[in-house]
Amino acid sequence: MSSGSVQAIDAVSVPDEDAAKAGLPVSIMAWYGAGQVGGQIFRDAPATLLPIFLTTMLGVPAWIAGISILLPKLWVIFCDPLMGAFSDRKKASWGRMPFLFAGAILTALCFFLLFSPPAFPAFWMSAVYNTVMFTIASTAFSLFSVPYLAMAAEMSENYHERTKIISFRLVFQSVGVLVGVGFVQPLVQWFGGGPYGYRMMAAVLGALCLVTMMATVIGMRRFRLIQTASEHISIFAQFRMAARYKWFALLGGAHFLQQLGQACNYTVVGLVFIYAIKDVTLLIPLVLVMTAGVMASQPAWLWLARRVGKRKTYFVGLIVWLLTTLSWVLVRPSDDVLIDLPLIGAVSTQGALVVLRGVLLGPFNAAFVLMSYSLLTDTIEYDRRRFGIAREGAFSGIFSALEKLAFAVGPAVAGVVLSLTGFAESKGGGGAQTPEAVRGILLNFGVMPAIFGVGALILLWFYKLDERTISGTRAA
Known about the structure:
Number of domains: 1
Order of helices and strands: EHHHHHHHEHHHHHEEHEHHH
Strand content: under 5%
Oligomer: single chain
């Protein structure tokens, strides 16, 4: 490495002993986590709604809709690492906050425009508009999401405290999931459906994105992150560096595969409740139960990670989640009354089973997502201790790009499966589907996550980086 490629700061700035013992204030971790509400809404709402919006409202064939969503997210493979490396170089002079500030404003605006297209006379024009607008929106979100993710590795050098930081992020993430998955489709219906319903939904959620993402900017504006020297590194050098860094490559590959499975699942979540279960109202209690499970389970996963290790906790969470997700292939519509509850009313057998799945899905999803990001901060910390150079943004950018790539490939895979099983696109609302098409929906929802999840478990089996290895490493 040439001396000109490194901007000297103060090597690694380690918090003093008293501060380390006291730990981070809860308020700082809460302000950090708040931004994930908007970030999760932006990730989940388009993932769950854009395929439906394009195929049932704008008349775009399923396979074209998949490509229209894929192309913008292919761009972020390059955009996220570029944003990460650029924010690393500007960290000493600018800090991370200017990126988060600009990203919050632009993301909220683009989210609204994404679901407010002009009335085009041909479906291909709608597809082109979606592709262009989603590309701009994804770039805006990179401004926020990549430096935001990097901050988790820069807030503490304590192995277990970083897990606690991520747990706050995950609690707020569950709120974003609740809104971005559970309420996004009902919001459209509450505003009367059609183009107006989608536009009003986008206005409400865009405003929520802005408020929550700006909360992190305002709440953490004076917080001092760990400072290290920075380096200028090209995007291709970043990819080579990440590929050669064994622990990052294994963790990144596992994260990509489990996110790919989730993306296939997310893409058809609305279709499952419309065509397979035939009761969209069940989506809200499902997500509510899952959200409650995520929040309530955090202390248990923090305890288990200390007890048996982060990797084993990841295994427990992902395995149970995959088995539960696979059971979705058994869902059927039902109109029986299993139990009549006060305030809720009649609950069918399938309705009860849907909620029961949520009881398992929420906590165990929280386990492997929490551990995945916590292991990322450990992987970055190990690299920082070895070389004493700020590459948090670069690694976070690639990790974020892998996640977004998964949520780009997922809809494309789901679109192909839907097309092969005879899913019929429509314009102005959902049309009737054949039993084979419904089976294709359930294949995406239950089987594809299981297939990709097994691949993630195989890769993670070889990830061996632990607290002892990290703590015994210092820069030469």
